[in-house]
Amino acid sequence: MSATTGPRPDEESAARATTATASVREAARPSGARPPGAPRRIGYLYVLPALLVYAAFLLWPLLHGAWISLYAWDGLSVGTFVGLANYVEVFTDEELRASLGHALFLVLFYAVLPCLIGFVLVAAMSRARVRGLTFFRTVLFLPQVVAMVAVAVIWKWIYAADGPLNAVLGLVGLDRAWLGDFTFALPAIGLIGTWVEIGLVMVLFMAGVQKIPMELYDAARVDGAGPVREFLTVTLPGLRRELSVALTLTTVAALRNFDLVWNTTGGGPGTNTRVPAYQVYNQAFSEGEVGLACAIGLVIAAGVFAFNVGLTRLVEGRR
Amino acid sequence: MTQRPQRSRRPRRAGTAIAASAAAVLVALTAACAPGSGGDAGNAKAPSSVSTDISKAGDVTLTVWDQEVRGGQNEQIEALNAAFQKKYPNVTIKRTSKEFTDLKTTLRLALSGQNPPDVVQANQGYGDMGAFVKAGMLVPLNKYADAYKWRDRYPKTLLALNSFTPDGKTFGSGELYGLSQAGEMVGVYYNKEKLSELGIQQPKTWADFEAALRKAKDAGELPIAFGNSDGFPAIHEYGVLQAQTAGKDAVRKLVFGQGGAWTDAPNTQAATTLKTWNDKGFLTKDANGVSYDDSWQDFADGEGVFVIAGTWLVPEFEKRGMGDKIGFMLPPPAQAGAASATTGGEGLPFAVTSKSKHPDVAAAYLNFLTSPEAMDVLVDNDVLPAVTPASKRPGGGLPGEVYAAWEASAKSDGLVPYLDYTTPSFYDTLSAELQRLLGGNASPEQVMQAAQKDYDDFTS
After folding, report:
1. Concatenated DSSP letters for B307-355?
2. Is B313 left (phi over 0), alpha (psi -120 to 50) or beta?
């Protein structure tokens, strides 16, 4: 799902130029000789090594998973063919359906919120020179580098009943066991996601903003645009591609979230923070429902795939 | 570059081709066989003849997978392995030790492979041992039990926990599939200094215990240190309460699927008591947000008068130098002097795999690990022995008190099994439901209805 393969205005003109030179070359070539890279099929030879690895470690397990998902299988004895019953269960079982809902809720915190915050910060920065930009960029990006388990341990401590967050909020009587609270546990996990993803989003947006020609800003200002107008007409269109990449990466992170939930709440309290990836692990290794686990996994994969296709079309306007 | 206009169509065609071939492969696979039928299924037949004399078995390498990785547990296994190889020079033990969850997740793959280890530690219950038995991957040990007289060595309850019917469907009866070394049970730890500060005697009856909780609360102390973010602590807490209200026989029947319902009045009563304790502030506030480890560590640091937890915490308290300040008792019975009932069981059992080429040697190894002489080695390493040791007894202090409680419980046959043995998903269901109860999101009746539904789904 690379976001940089679409035709861009500047690339297209370059392409036209290449076409011209190519036809000149073709005319000059003695008849019978092939153009470089032909026959086209030879291209497959180049991708073969990577394709083999990809097929062995991704496509084959995917197919194998799809096969297993059609069975009721405990991972040990001989499975029974059940058709699509496992998929029906994913969408009808109350708890499994709830966990799909939790995953969508987390997308708000992992993808939407960081992008919104990123826009505000970037809009502010595009109007003024920020001193020590590299420093801030490094600090913001740090959460991305830290292992998720470490992130979970840190935030578990911050959210703890006698942790620093409650020490502050306790002053105004708002303290509670955040990760053990039925209402707040999921948003609390979501906010950790926001904190982690914001660095990634910011780095992408900052790089994007630096590519926008200053002339456009100057022109907007000459035309009397305020900060909001300027953001909507110059910054936002200029960041389209970066937004697409950011949304893709952060949404995938939200939908496949396992480590953070496992290490902070373990799916609790009750079943309030169970997410699909947690269910995959739980069904396969604790409850011996390997077929159902595979079905859940494939539903996540299909969801991520569908989302990305939709996103690319929507944000990049590609068909 | 010249091909650009056609590029967009190309991948689509390839995509269709890939999808079509994927579907074809899938259909072929589906038609060919079911998962699990590829390898030859285990041969779970009981051995036709058993031999207890393994010195003439020739040179044998016995592969063992265990999860005894922590301090004393690891040392006792290493000592016993060395002793076994010394006794039988023809046997070499190849040991692999993995942490509990690692072993749990890799064991399935290992057992379904062509060369599984000879001896493995397989967790009790439907999820693990039951599934292995059903798939024919473990050797039924009844004949060895007769040959080695294991039924004299172990109390009946402890053998039941390692037994299954050969179809893997009924837990607690049928064939024996493994032997455990260590004992464990849930009891009540108390802070001796706090009790004397509060002027409370060690409670002898359940009523005394509840009165002590109230007195501690009134004096501004935390009565029971309790952290439930992990989910299982509430099962242990509830188990102790249920053993009081329902009695050991009813709980055993319920867990082993021999009758009764989770919605029966005594079971609901236990949930109501847990909720009342929580509402009255007898338990740590917002316990769903406090981790188990934090709760007992706080208790060791002097927060809380009691803790209801398992004997596995003894080495931790000892390590913190709290062994003299903390006492251990069985949950007090309704009448002073009567027998106590509490949740308990034994460590992970060692089992013999069906594909092992040396079941006799493996069984001899199991016999050796659980012999009274081996139990002496467990005592030396501060591990609670499941069966009576040949000569040694844990010394004074906390290990001594725990061992005394274990012996008393064995004598009165007072152990009830862990409640999560009920169905493969019961741990999941009950831990989530009890968190709801404590969070005020479910009533005791709703919790028990959910438990019963899980049970009905499994048995239907």
Report:
1. EEEEGGGHHHHHHTT-TTTEEEEPPPPSSTTSPP-EEEEESPPEEEBTT
2. alpha
How many pairs of residues across A and B have Cβ atoms under 8 Å apart? 143
Question: What number does CATH give the domain B60-182+347-391?
Answer: 3.40.190.10
Domains of chain A: 85-316 (1.10.3720.10)
Rg of chain A over CA atoms, in angstroms? 25
Q: How far is A279 from chain B (nearest CA, A)?
A: 11
- Residue A181 sits at the vertex; the CA angle it makes with B302 and A283, to the nearest 5 degrees, is 105
**Extents of the domains making up chain B:** 60-182+347-391, 185-345+416-459
CATH tag, B185-345+416-459: 3.40.190.10
ipTM surpasses cut 0.90? no
CA dihedral A123, A196, B439, B299 (to 10 degrees): -130
Task: Name the residue facing A70 among B30, B425, B427 (closest C-beta).
Answer: B30
Q: Strand A80-81 relative to strand A71-72: parallel, antiparallel, unpaired?
A: antiparallel
3-state secondary structure of B119: strand
Q: Count each helix (H run) and each strand (E run) in chain A, helices first.
A: 17, 2
Contacts of B436 in chain A (CB under 8 A): 182, 269-270
Q: How far apart are the first and last CA of chain B?
A: 64
Q: How far is CA A123 from the centre of its chain?
A: 23
Looking at the complex, does the CB of residue A21 fall below 8 Å from at least one CB of chain B? no
Query: What is the per-residue burial (b if ≥16 Cβ within 10 Å, else e) of B178-216?
Result: bbbbbbbbbbbbbbeebbeeeebeebeebeebbebbebb
CB B144 within 8 A of CB B370: no
How far is the alpha carbon of A142 from chain B, nearest alpha carbon, in Å? 27
Give the closest-approach CA distance of B424 to chain A in angstroms.
5
Averaged over successive runs of 10 residues, the pLDDT of chain B (460 residues) comes to: 35 51 59 62 67 87 91 90 95 92 84 90 90 92 95 90 92 94 95 94 94 96 94 94 94 91 96 97 94 92 94 86 90 90 93 94 96 93 88 85 91 91 91 95 96 91
How far does Cα B118 stand from its chain's mean position?
Answer: 22
**Local structure of B190: helix, strand or coil:** strand
Chain A hits for B104, Cβ within 8 Å? 285
pTM: 0.83
Query: Is-same-fold flag (B60-182+347-391; B185-345+416-459)?
Result: yes
Contacts of B41 in chain A (CB under 8 A): 77-78
Determine the distance in angstroms separating the CA of A33 from the nearest CA of chain B, rounded to an integer: 18
Could you tell me where the beta strands, DSSP code E, fall in chain A?
Answer: 71-72, 80-81
Q: Give the pLDDT band (50/70/90) at residue A76.
A: confident
d(CA B430, CA A76): 26
Cα–Cα dist A307/A288, whole Å: 30
Q: 225-284 in A: which are within 8 Å (CB) of B?
A: 265-271, 282
Determine contact: A182 vs chain B, CB below 8 A.
yes
Positive or negative, the Cα torsion across B60, B65, B69, B73? negative
